[in-house]
């Protein structure tokens, strides 16, 4: 929080010291959620553990509190089905590291009350996150489905010897990623022609032709795994010291990018 404050990126109206005094921890679940309006479960990706936590929460929360899970892979039907407070349950999947990357995927259970989604959405907006609403649950939600599509083609291209692992990462970091930091793939299409309809007219056939050349789902093992691993550990050896240093560098980059995006947004608001 001190680092965020120094970087001018601390969310909320209170100073870091004031915010820290409002944070406390305890080992008694009942005490932890007393009078809570919103509960965010952040235990490891273990279905039985999460179900156990939610069944305990189900017995002690009020009829107004929102119960949410940070899970990135477990479906709401697996987590919440059978709870008496199921209408108040939602997945609110943040993106790592959430203090720099603001996206939160809101995924409802089929029985989640629409007001739960709206309240969670409003709360996320209020604390400075960027919530998105999914209308229903789907394996991988949206962020990971997009990420896995990229990872899958990455694996095939490197495995087929089309490009080296280092150059592949460069295609994203100094190519697509530059663009996608500010606009998504759909707006990219819209701007890369005279609007979306013109883009589809121009590129529809070419896109379909290329997509038909995509190979089967990789097994993420074997020779390609070794090849990619060798390239990665050359850049960042896979021991805690080197990985943590590289993660710190990544986070510093994200702070600067987040600050830039924040400044651009406030400039845009001033021009309106």
Automatic annotation (TrEMBL):
Q: Where is the 3-hydroxyacyl-CoA dehydrogenase C-terminal domain?
A: 140-208
Gene Ontology biological-process entries: fatty acid metabolic process
Q: What is its main location?
A: cytoplasm
Signal peptide residues are none
What does the entry list under GO cellular component?
A: cytoplasm
Cite the EC number: 1.1.1.45
Complex and partners: Homodimer.
Q: Which family does it belong to?
A: Belongs to the 3-hydroxyacyl-CoA dehydrogenase family.
Q: What is this protein called?
A: L-gulonate 3-dehydrogenase
């Amino acid at each position: 929080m001190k680092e965020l404050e120094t970087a001018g990126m601390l969310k909320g109206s209170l100073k870091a010291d004031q915010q820290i005094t409002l944070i406390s921890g305890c080992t008694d679940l009942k005490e932890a959620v007393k009078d809570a309006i919103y509960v965010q479960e952040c235990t490891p990706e273990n279905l039985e553990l999460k179900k156990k936590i939610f069944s305990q929460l189900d017995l002690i929360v009020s009829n107004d509190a929102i119960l949410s899970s940070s899970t990135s892979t477990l479906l709401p039907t697996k987590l919440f089905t059978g709870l008496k407070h199921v209408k108040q349950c939602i997945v609110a999947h943040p993106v790592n590291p959430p203090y720099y990357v603001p996206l939160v995927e809101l995924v409802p259970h089929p029985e989640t009350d629409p007001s739960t989604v709206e309240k969670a959405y409003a709360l996320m907006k209020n604390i400075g996150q960027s919530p998105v609403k999914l209308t229903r649950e789907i394996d991988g939600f949206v962020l990971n489905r997009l990420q896995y599509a990229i990872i899958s083609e990455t694996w095939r291209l490197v495995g087929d010897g089309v490009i080296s692992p280092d150059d592949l990462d460069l295609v994203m970091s100094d190519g697509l990623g530059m663009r996608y930091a500010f606009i998504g793939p759909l707006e990219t299409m819209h701007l890369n022609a005279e609007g979306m309809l013109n883009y589809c007219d121009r590129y529809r056939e070419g896109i379909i032709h290329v997509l038909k050349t995509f190979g089967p789902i990789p097994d993420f093992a074997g020779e390609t795994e070794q090849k990619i691993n060798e390239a990665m550990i050359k850049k960042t050896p896979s021991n805690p010291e080197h990985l943590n240093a590289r993660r710190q560098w990544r986070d510093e980059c994200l702070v600067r990018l987040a600050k830039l995006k924040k400044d651009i947004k406030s400039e845009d608001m001033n021009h309106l």
